[in-house]
Amino acid sequence: MNSANLSDPTGRFANPDNAAAAVSSAGEALRLGVNIDHVATVRNARGGDHPDPVRAALAAAKAGADGITAHLREDRRHIIDADVQRLRDEQPLPLNFEMAATADMLRIALDLKPHACCLVPERREERTTEGGLDVSANPEGLRTAIATLKDAGIRVSLFIEADARAIAFAAQAGADIVELHTGRYCDLLVEGAGEDAQAVYRQLEGGAWLAHDAGLEVHAGHGLRYDSAQALAALSQVVELNIGHFMVGE
Known about the structure:
Blueprint: H1 3-7, H2 17-20, E1 31-35, H3 37-46, H4 53-63, E2 67-71, H5 81-89, E3 95-99, H6 103-112, E4 116-119, H7 139-151, E5 155-160, H8 164-173, E6 177-181, H9 183-191, H10 194-213, E7 217-221, H11 226-233, E8 238-243, H12 245-249
Parallel strand pairs: 1-2, 1-8, 2-3, 3-4, 4-5, 5-6, 6-7, 7-8
Helix pairs in contact: 9-10
């Protein structure tokens, strides 16, 4: 199999200009959300206030990004409470607040009132988010969190695998958006596991169709680089990609 086709299964990006002109099924240009968590990781490694996540958000806005994502983890390992308040108040882009579905985080979100909240799984021992939400583990808790946030006028997203049951739950529970976890696909591309990567891509493609048909807005993210972002941008149901670690590294 041609390795180029693994990162661009449709052949749509043979011309790099096509990537910038990606259009969703709704006829809108694909949006870019920039996750600035790891700007805070670098800052916290040494202490102090440099580099500043808000300055990174302003640079992203100036460069044409459509939104800013920040994950306030329960252990505050990168983004801290003061960051999210400043990110809401001091930069112009919609803030996507990633959070665990806990009572403490719900309280913070209701005080913050970001544009959107993305409910994500969280384990203190993990280095980074390792997969999508297990919606079967605490379905009533997720339904309560979704309803509480929506009652406050906050859009709600669930970070899930491209799994039919998880997508059906998101729709039934009243979520506005699903963000499909792309980490496994991205890892397989980096490892050169072409056939496995292609199989996972097809799962993501099927999940995007299912979510779109269920009336959900479809986003995708985690581990995206140039090649994997181009491939996901080729899925017309996907209206937003969220990219962070790779952009900070570049």
